[in-house]
Here is the input.
Amino acid sequence: MDVKKVLKKYNLKPDVHRDQIFIVDEDLQKEIVDMADLGKGDKVLEIGPGIGNLTEHIARKCPVTAVEKDGRMSAVLNHLDMSNISVLQRDVMAVHLKNLDFNKIVSNLPFSVSTPLTFKFLDLDWELAVLVYQKEFAKRMVGKPGTMDNSRMSLKVQYHCDAEIVKEIPSEKFYPEPVTDSAVVRLVKKDVEKKTLRFWKIVKAAFHHRRKLVKNSLEDSAHFLGIEKKSVKNLEDRLPDKRVYECTIEDFEYIEEVLGEIM
Here is the structure.
């Protein structure tokens, strides 16, 4: 799809502050969709499709449910006149995605909701996702323990998925041109037991002070966990002697076991 031509045809002016940023390179549009290995038996969820520059490539391979908040954009999607496209004009953060029928996700995601939307995805059942994020966000998704890219996001994404950055995209490949580069992340969902809300709350609390030693970070975040600072201090000899960004999922499993005595 020639993005600028379509925008002109429908007299649309995308707003970068509303996450209306489109991939203009037509070969790149197709390449991103091809990364999802789509077949006739697949059903795709697309978030923030805009005017459908990725949507039309997906729909040539399999059915796609496109969730688009902006009524002007969803009108363009409906004009694509492809039977494989189902348009849902809603704010994705208000949609119960578990009620939709899909096994794969392909999206150039709205940057402003990348974090809550990614966490929302991780709690759902699907097989594979190909997602475009801001580059720095993508690096945090695949960050490894011991690096400063390791984060709550890294741990949760990599617990639930095999994750890799498969392509970096310079900002000039988009219109309007954003201030930062982007990257394509490919996620393959794992079959794992869901962690408790308590587990992820502990992870979040610790990463409030990612550079500190675990014991110091948890003492400083005790109020967030609903426990007393002195209770954490009494357990500090049993906590890993590491800085938070050095911790693995296994470290946090042990930390949860220790803190379970006082939570």
The chain has a mean pLDDT of 95. The chain has twelve helices and nine strands. The two ends are 54 Å apart (CA to CA).
